[in-house]
Design brief:
FAD/NAD(P)-binding domain, Enolase-like, domain 1, five-stranded parallel beta sheet
């Protein structure tokens, strides 16, 4: 016996949950099938939210970056700190999962636990604890997310070699941690363990961290990391990771041998597409196993859509949610959300955090735009001096002829929150004059926008190159 739905979603992560809820809100009968007992995907249970919780717990429990300010710090053993961090992360994960579950229930969505596979005639075959169920659908949305990439040659069977999900289960805080990969995940974990007292070395084949960032911001972040005691080995490959006399040893392309108590491999993710029966259903994937979609998130198979990490970058939960909503609207011709925001912000939760929206200097230059920049360093900001977090800056990129704002780039405390003010001005097609004429509370980090705009005006009047 089969059950009939308007929409069947495979995956209860950000894209699947929001896509399903969007369709249900407009009266569609929806079912979601997910392999895990707890909905929410890796964002809620294994990656995004747990990582950010660990970051905040590490800062709170250790007093990192505030100890020099007051000469005080919370002295906890590594075991106690790890236990308290893990307990806090577990609490937040439970709350996040319950929030997703309540949203699914509130929209009247049927939630099935099981392994899903595309069947004939636009059906989804779900194998779960209660046996096999066949779900017929007018539309299918694949939102199975991604998992950490496991390249050949990395000994993940070693208990001290981790990827971004397994590292959450560490039994102890390592004295020496080697991080392979200078992307968002690698940089976030490297800074978290640095705050926890680990000696951290970060290795990446590229010449700078987080290469999607504005070049100046990327290099400033590297300088901050170095100033906090992290060792960076850029433009360097890891030739091997082996055991030697009980310890892990990394051999670098430079010939250097680096001993480590734990290794985190954080260099990419792979789409969860195995076992879905994509080929039989006519759903095309690219060379990295990511589902190919058009601008409406429709796949190469009629009536089948895909959204979220399973279709590739940017790998942001915020964007995945919007992709799911837009896919549902296009699938059912709902006149609500037609496109994903082209000016979505990026946030990287390092210590300190980094955020950006819009064009970098490099992008503006490549586009042939005559641009200028304005900067305000947090070392001159009263609120930053009060808190003791004076690293970083707010940087504005704008067009010379009319001062049109093109991009905003922030390195420093609360960057992921501060970025939304710049995003709002960009969305409205505003100029840096907005920041000049706006009154900001004093002292606040936000007033750095005003001084970055003033700096930009001064550079224009002085003809600075």
């Amino acid at each position: 016996m089969s059950e009939r739905f308007d929409l069947v979603v495979i995956g209860a992560g950000p894209a699947g949950e929001k896509g399903g809820a969007q369709a249900a809100y407009f009266g569609k009968k929806v079912a979601i099938v997910d392999l895990r007992e707890d909905p929410g995907g890796s964002t809620a249970t294994k990656a995004g939210i747990p990582t950010k919780t660990l970051r905040e717990a590490a800062l709170y429990l250790t007093g990192f970056r505030r100890r020099e300010l007051y000469g005080l710090g919370m002295e906890l053993t590594h075991e106690t700190a790890l236990n308290r961090m893990r307990a806090r992360a577990d609490d937040v994960v439970r709350l996040s999962v319950e929030t997703v579950r309540r949203n699914i229930e509130r929209h009247g969505i049927e939630l099935y636990r099981g392994e899903a596979r595309l069947g004939p005639g636009r059906t989804v075959v779900a194998h779960g604890p209660d046996g096999e169920r066949i779900l017929e659908a007018e539309v299918i949305l694949i939102a199975t997310g991604s998992r950490p990439y496991h390249p050949p040659g990395v000994p993940f069977d070693d208990p001290d070699v981790h990827e971004s999900e397994s590292i959450l289960d560490l039994a102890r805080i390592p004295k020496r941690l080697a991080v392979i990969g200078g992307g968002a995940v690698g940089c976030e974990y490297a800074s978290i363990f640095l705050a926890l007292g680990s000696s951290v070395m970060l290795v990446d084949t590229r010449d700078r961290l987080l290469p999607f960032l504005d070049d100046e911001i990327s290099r400033e972040l590297a300088a901050v990391f170095g100033g906090l005691g992290m060792r960076l080995a850029l433009e360097t490959e890891v030739s091997s990771v082996e055991r030697a006399e009980g310890a892990l040893v990394l051999t670098l392309s430079s010939g250097e041998l680096v001993p480590a108590d734990a290794v985190l491999f954080a260099a990419g993710r792979a789409g969860n597409t195995e076992g879905l029966g994509l080929a039989e259903a006519g759903v095309e994937v690219d060379g990295r196993g990511r589902i190919v979609v058009d601008e409406t998130f429709r796949t190469t198979a009629e009536g089948i859509y895909a959204a979220g990490d399973v279709i590739g970058p940017p790998g942001l939960a915020s964007v995945a949610m919007e992709q799911g909503r837009v896919a549902a609207c296009h699938a059912f011709k709902i006149p609500f959300k037609e496109t994903v925001d082209p000016l979505a912000p990026f946030g990287v939760y390092t210590i300190p955090d980094v955020a950006m929206v819009g064009m970098t200097e490099e992008a503006a230059r490549e586009a042939g735009i005559d641009f200028e920049v304005g900067r305000a360093w947090f070392s001159g900001n009263a609120r930053a001096r009060i808190s003791g977090a004076m690293e970083g800056l707010v940087k504005l990129v704008f067009r010379r002829e009319d001062r049109l704002l093109l991009g905003v780039h922030i390195l420093g405390d609360e960057a992921s929150e501060l970025i939304h003010l710049g995003q709002a001005v960009l969305q409205q097609g505003g100029t840096i004059d907005y920041f000049i004429h706006t009154t900001f509370n004093v002292p606040t980090l936000s007033e750095a926008y005003k001084y970055a705009a003033y700096d930009g005006l001064q550079r224009l009047s002085a003809g600075v190159d």
